[in-house]
Specification:
It is built from 7 helices and 10 strands. With 226 residues, the chain is α+β, with helices and mostly antiparallel strands. It starts with 15 loop residues before the first helix and ends in a 5-residue tail after the last strand. Helices cover 24% and strands 34% of the residues.
Amino acid sequence: MIVNGTYQPHQRLPSESDLIKRYGVSRITVRQALGELEKEGLLFKIAGKGMFVSKPKPFQDLARLQGFAEAMSRQGYEVYNRVVGLDFAAGNGTADSDEPRQRLDLAEPERIAELKRVRYLNREPVSYDVSYMSATLGERLAKEDLPGRDFFLIFENQYGIALGFADLAIDAILADSEIAELLQIAKGTPILRVERLTHSRDGQPLTFEYLYCRADNFQFRLRIAR
């Protein structure tokens, strides 16, 4: 009933006594069930008032290659990107200086652009993205509306670059002081790090990125078939 919308976010659930009568089970069974739903993040408790339905986390489907704003706007969220840095020197920011150049197949002495953005949903930070690309592509993007648009859509709609596929790797890390400040979380908080290498349709690497995502207010989803 929570999942299908019968109970709306922040709506109070019936009391334990009501649930006991409705389902014909013991109080301990009701409490165990509510406890499991609370662990799953579907419910939250307010002392003296009862259990309430949690607001669902926004999510991005990893089975589709799409920009952050493209995915979130479809779910009705307000999206904003705060650009915190655009550097055209060697990729010497969050990643090892050689890694982005190698992944993008850029030979010395070609410069590499490093774009840093904080992504906001409904004015709350959810991810810190560090994106690398050729300096030529970065210089074109610097003239665009980066706070309001995804560069995936800019690539396709303005530059005529057809996107093909992306290789992803996901791991969990602890937020350092810089990332914690940008995401408004405590230093050492567990976060997800997504490493993404995006290619054009003809197989050429376009962007190499590190996406540092809060785990408390955002999630990734993926459907796989046997």
